[in-house]
Every structure is written in C-alpha cells, then in structure tokens.
C-alpha cells in the first residue's frame, strides 16, 4: 500500500490484507556442481574483512514473461549456466568451516551450490512492491536450508527459480556476505547472466586470491576503531522495540528532493559567517539527515551516545588498489559518534560533516589498521545504539539479464538487523534513492513527519 506517496510495509499488528497473496510450492533441493574439475580438499582463505560480516543476504530478481514456451527453459538454462560459472567461482561450491587459526574459512569440497525449482499460484504482479522488505511473502522466493542452526550449516549460496502463472519468473538468492560484498556479488550475478546468454568469456573474471589482504606481521592497528565500541543504551530503546510492532517504510528521494537535502546540509555552518558553505556528496548529506532524523524519532536522551556505521569501498583506496574482479569483501566500516543532544542541537550540516570526516578517514593505512585490529583482538563491530547504513545505490542490478531481459523488479527480502538502513537506487534512470528502514510504530510516525518536511 501507499501512504503519502511512501511505500509502507505492514507490521505484525497490521491487517493481513496489506500483504500480497503469494503461495509457493518448492521442489526438492538439488546440488549444482561446477561443470569442470575444480580444486578440492583444501581450505580457501577468507580475509579479516570477510570475517565480520558472515550474514546471509537475500535478494530477489523478477522477470516478466517473454512469450512462447521459453519459460520452460528457465530453470534448466540457469542451472546449466550456474554450473559453468562455478568453474570460475568454485569456492561457492564449497562449505564454510573453521581454520586452525579459529577463523572462518571455506572447505573446497566441490559439492555444489543449492538449487531449487518452485511454482507460485499467482501472477508476478501479485508479488507486490520490492522497494520495501516483506519477509513473510518474499521469503517464499528464497530457499533457506531447513533446520540450519548456525552459519556453518548454511551453504555459501542457494538459488531458487520460481515460475509464475503469467509466464514470468523470479530468481531468489541467499548468499553469505563473507563470500563477497555488494560489488563482488553483482559481478558474480552478472557473470552468471552473461554465461547464460552464451558468452564465451567473462567480462570481469574473478580474482580469487584474498591473501592480498592478509594482516601485517606483527599486526599494527594505528587507529582507535570506534566501530567496535559498545555503547550503553541509556535511553532504553530496547524496551521501545520490544513493546511495539516493527514497521518498514521506503522513502523515495527524487533528484529534486536530493538537491534540497544537499542544500539543507550545506546551509549550516560551523559558527563562522566568513567560511563558505561546505559541499557534501549526496551520500554524506542524506546520511547526516537520516542519522539525525532517526535519533529524534526514537526520542533518544540528550546524553545518549549514538554511533553511525557505514561501509566504504576500499578497492581503489588500497595502495596498490585491489585487482579488478576481486572476489571478496573490499569494504571497510568507518564510523562517527555523537550524543543525541549534539546531533539535535546543531543543523544537519553538523551530522553531514561528521559523515564526511568518517569517509575521509578511510585511507590505505586506516584499512590496513582495521585488518590488523581484527587480527589482534578478534573484535566484532557492535550494533548497540548504532545506525548502520548500507548503500546499494551504485550496484548494477540491471545487468542481471539471463536471456529474458533485465529484471523488472529487484530488491532485498528483508533487512538483516533492526539497526540497518538501506539506500537503494530507484527508477529507470537510477537518479532517485529509496531509503529503506524499520522502526517501532511510534518512532516511524515521527520519522515520517520529519521526512514530510523535506
């Protein structure tokens, strides 16, 4: 449904009628092995940047009917192409394990990726709006291994092809973030797609050697790395989340609205009328705005410290840069910390400025320090009193053409944690950004009012 032009996902307490009707019947899960022999019996190294984000990311790509009997070939074509592309991405055919150093690794078993065929009892149009997550409905389009209790019991990836009555189909992927970041994942999906279209060679072949990001010996963490800081919840937001339904909404910022956000961020200053307005990127301005608005909507106490985390792509920031097609996580978390009082007593420019400083902090030495910090401490980023912004706005989802055209819709099934906000590109020209988040009901109403003012 739509509310004031904003997509709204029903929470647990809303009427079931708000959910799209979708019932899916799955076939038996099978394994797709690489089409040619690949290395087995070894452990595949995962870098320290891979260790901290071993979470399953679920995405769905929807394709409209192309006419004729071609739909009957969908599952067979995707299965065959997957077998061939796994020759290049063979660690995805293995299983997660623990190395002698007690780190996450991949056992190169070659047993294959999990593949499932399914049929839906409705048309593709009934899926609903993919600009917001809907785990109950969209979760049926992605296969999860039954009974898996922890990450080691889940394969690196599963794929489900769901056929709809209208002739369209959906490809649902569940992939472990430790295998690759968003850029790496899209390069894999696009490689799979061009293989399905008959390409003899991959446009961007994967670079598999992750030891280029090994820690220094001895480790030397030269930054404090506050991204790992545990912040006390003095505002008792845990009680707020526990007592109310979690609502998801997607707020669309078109080019005009994004320009207003940049102007709003640039209009503030640091108290010196002689200084020119600061210039902020769209990400810096929008992140500052959202961080400040979410802080206000949650009603945080003035002395409540709040942390902003977001990932910066380090591929070109490393010295030397990571090789093209790097198969792994090339992202590094950076952070900004402020009290709620500091954020709300200052203009948006203050928050945007802190975001900008956090971006500029990410140099080669900062990233090497982050790698070494984990090596020395095995610490994991804390999400206590934290907002984690994930940006998908630059990912090339439209390149996922398996031979049936570009996806007509694509998006996440759910947000991995309540602290996560997702920035998604929106529209055919990809010049708009959807800000996707979940909040307790009363906080979402307050956040909605703040967004209506922009």
Key traits:
454 residues; Chloramphenicol Acetyltransferase; disordered N terminus; globular; 2 domains; 25% helix; alpha+beta; 8-stranded mixed sheet; 7-stranded mixed sheet
Description:
The protein has 2 domains: 24-212, Chloramphenicol acetyltransferase-like domain (Chloramphenicol Acetyltransferase, 2-Layer Sandwich); 226-453, Chloramphenicol Acetyltransferase (2-Layer Sandwich). The protein is 25% helix and 23% strand. The chain is built from 11 helices and 18 strands. It is globular, with a radius of gyration of 22 Å. Residues 1-19 and 270-274 have low confidence and may be disordered. Keywords: Acyltransferase, Transferase. This is Omega-hydroxypalmitate O-feruloyl transferase. Belongs to the plant acyltransferase family. InterPro entries: CAT-like_dom_sf, Plant_Fungal_Acyltransferase.
Brief rundown of the structure:
The chain is an alpha+beta fold. Helices cover 25% and strands 23% of the residues.
Tell me how many strands there are: 18
Q: What structural class is derived from the secondary structure elements? A: alpha+beta
CATH fold name of the largest domain, please?
A: Chloramphenicol Acetyltransferase
N-to-C series of helices and strands: EEEEEHEHEEEHEEHHEHHEEHHHEEEEH
């Amino acid at each position: 449904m739509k509310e004031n032009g904003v997509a709204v996902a029903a929470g647990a307490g809303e009427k079931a009628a708000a959910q799209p009707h979708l019932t899916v019947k799955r076939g038996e899960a099978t394994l797709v092995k690489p089409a040619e022999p690949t290395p087995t019996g070894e452990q595949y190294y995962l870098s320290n940047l891979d260790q901290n984000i071993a979470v399953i990311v679920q995405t769905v790509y929807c394709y409209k009917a192309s006419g004729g009997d071609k739909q009957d070939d969908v599952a067979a074509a995707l299965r065959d192409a997957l077998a061939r592309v796994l020759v290049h991405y063979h660690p995805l055919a293995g299983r997660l394990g623990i190395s002698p150093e007690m780190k996450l690794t991949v056992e190169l078993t070659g047993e294959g990726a999990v593949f499932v065929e399914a049929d839906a009892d409705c048309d593709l149009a009934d899926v609903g709006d993919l600009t917001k997550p809907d785990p109950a409905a969209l979760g049926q389009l992605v296969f999860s291994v039954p009974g898996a209790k922890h990450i080691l019991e889940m394969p690196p990836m599963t794929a489900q092809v769901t056929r709809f009555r209208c002739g369209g189909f959906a490809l649902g992927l569940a992939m472990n973030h430790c295998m690759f970041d968003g850029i790496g994942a899209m390069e894999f999906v696009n490689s799979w797609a061009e293989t399905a279209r008959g390409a003899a060679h991959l446009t961007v072949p994967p670079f598999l050697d992750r030891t280029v990001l090994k820690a220094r010996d001895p480790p030397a963490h030269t930054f404090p790395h506050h991204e790992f800081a545990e912040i006390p919840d003095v505002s008792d937001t845990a009680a707020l989340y526990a007592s109310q339904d979690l609502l998801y909404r997607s707020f669309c910022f078109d080019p005009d609205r994004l320009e207003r956000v940049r102007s709003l961020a640039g209009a503030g200053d640091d108290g010196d009328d002689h200084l020119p307005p600061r210039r902020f990127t769209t990400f810096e301005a929008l992140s500052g705005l959202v961080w400040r608005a979410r802080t206000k909507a949650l009603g945080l106490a003035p002395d409540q410290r709040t942390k902003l985390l977001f990932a910066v792509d380090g591929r070109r920031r490393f010295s030397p840069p990571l090789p093209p097609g790097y198969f792994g996580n090339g992202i590094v978390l950076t952070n900004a910390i402020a009290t709620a009082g500091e954020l709300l007593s200052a203009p948006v420019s203050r928050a945007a400025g802190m975001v900008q400083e956090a971006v500029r902090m990410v140099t080669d030495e900062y990233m090497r320090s982050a790698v070494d910090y984990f090596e020395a401490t095995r610490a994991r980023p804390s999400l206590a009193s934290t907002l984690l912004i994930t940006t998908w706005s630059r990912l090339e989802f439209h390149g996922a053409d398996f031979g049936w055209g570009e996806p007509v819709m694509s998006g996440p099934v759910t947000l991995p944690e309540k602290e996560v906000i997702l920035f998604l590109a929106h529209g055919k020209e990809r010049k708009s950004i959807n800000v996707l988040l979940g909040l307790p009901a009363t906080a979402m109403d307050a956040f909605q009012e703040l967004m209506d003012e922009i």
